[in-house]
Amino acid sequence: MRRVRRSARLTATAVVALACTVAGCSSTKSGGDDGGSGSGSGGKVVVGLVTKTNSNPYFVKLRESAKAQADKRGAKLIALAGKFDGDNQGQVDAINNLVAQKVTGILITPSSSKGVLGAIAAARSKGVLVIALDTATEPADAVDATFATDNEDAGVKQGAYVKAALGQADPKVVLLDGTPGSTVDDLRHNGFLEGFGIAEKSPAVKGTAVTNGDQSKAQTAMENLLQREPGVNAVYTINEPAAAGAAQAVGTRKGVVVGSIDGSCTGVRNVAAGKFAATVMQFPQKMAAMGVDAVADYAKDDTKKPEGFVDTGSELITDKQVGSVASKDTAWGLKNCWG
What is the DSSP letter of 78? Predict the structure, then answer.
C-alpha cells in the first residue's frame, strides 16, 4: 500500500512539472494577492484608470494623458469606465476587475462620491494605492489622495462672472446640474450660488434641472425651463456639453449669459464664437500625469505615498472681461486648453 501511495505522489509531481514546462509557472510572494505587486504585467508597474464614461471629451483627454504618462514612465495603463455618467455599478465592477489584474494603483473619477467606497476599501486592503482624480470621494479620506480642481472655487468663478456680466439687469437664473450625489456637482452648484451672491431658494432662481452633463438632455431641459420662464437671463451649467445644449436652446435670444466649467478646446472655441459667455478651464492632463507619476513613484518607494487634496488649478476664460473678475482670453485658452 505504501508503494502504491508513493507511486501516486510521484505521478502527481510529474504532472505538475509537465504543466509548468508547457504553461510556465511563477512563484508567488507572501501577500501575492495584493494588487500592488504589479505581477499581472511581468513586474511592470500597472496603473488602472476608471473614468465616469468613455465618451465625454473631458475623460477622453484625461485617459489620453494618463496613457502618455504611463508610456513615459515605462508603466502599463488599463483604462475602464462606466457606461454613462452615474453608472456606479459599472465603476464598482471596473475597480474589482483592476484588482483582479493586480494593478499597482487605481486612478478614479467616481460617478458617485459614496457609491464606490466599498470597492475602494477592498482594493486598498489588498495594497492597491487609490487616487481620486477630478472628483473627490465622500469622505475624502476614503482614498489615499485626490488630485483635482477646486470645484467650489471654479463654481465661484463662474457665478461671479455671470453676475458681473448681467450688469444692472434683474437676475433670473436657471441651474443646469450634473448628476445627483456627485461631489463635483454639489461643489460647482454651491460655488456658483456663492459667486453670484444668491441663496438656493432665492426668488432669482427660476428653475433647476438634472442633465447628467449631457448636451441633448441639457438642451431639452433648457427648452422646458424657457417655456416656463421666458425671461431667463443667467444660466449655470455643470460642464461644457451642458452649456452647448443650453446655448442651442437659447438660440438668438439676447441678453442671456451662459457660463460653464471645463476648458476644452471646443469649449474655448464656443466662447470665442459667442455661444456661451465664459468657461472655467480645468487641467485634466495635469491631474492624470500627476496620478500616474504618484503610482509609479510609490511602486519604487512606498514612503512616497501621496495623501490629501492637491488643487490642480483653474482659470476663467472669456473675451468679454467684466468688472474686477480675473480672466484669460480665448487666445490664451486655445494654447492651454486642458493642459
Answer: E
Residues in the chain: 339
Residue 41 confidence (pLDDT) = 54
Residue with cell 504618484: 294
Give the burial class of 300: count Cβ atoms within 10 A of its Cβ; 0-12 exposed, 13-18 middle, 19 or more buried. Answer: exposed
Instruction: Using alpha carbons, select from 338, 280, 283, 273 the residue that is nearest to residue 312.
Output: 283
SS3 content of the chain, % helix, strand, coil (to 5): 45, 15, 35
Task: Identify the residue whose cell numbers are 490664451.
Answer: 332
Q: 151-281+315-336: same fold as 35-148+284-306? A: yes
Domain boundaries, given as residue ranges, for the chain: 35-148+284-306, 151-281+315-336
pLDDT per residue as tens digits for the range 172-196? 999 999 988 888 899 999 999 999 9
Res 37: pLDDT? 42
The average pLDDT across 281-288 equals 95
Q: How many CA atoms lie within 13 A of 290 on its CB side?
A: 23
- Taking the C-alpha atoms of residue 221 and residue 225, their distance in angstroms, rounded to an integer, is 6
Is the distance from CB of 319 to CB of 329 less than 8 angstroms? yes
CB 209 within 8 A of CB 175: yes
Query: For the domain bounded by 151-281+315-336, which CATH number is listed?
Result: 3.40.50.2300
**The pTM is what?**
0.78
Q: Where are the beta strands (DSSP E) in the chain?
A: 46-51, 76-81, 105-108, 129-133, 145-148, 173-177, 205-210, 234-237, 257-262, 278-281, 308-311, 315-317
- Could you please state the CATH topology (level 3) that the domain comprising 35-148+284-306 is classified under: Rossmann fold (3.40.50)
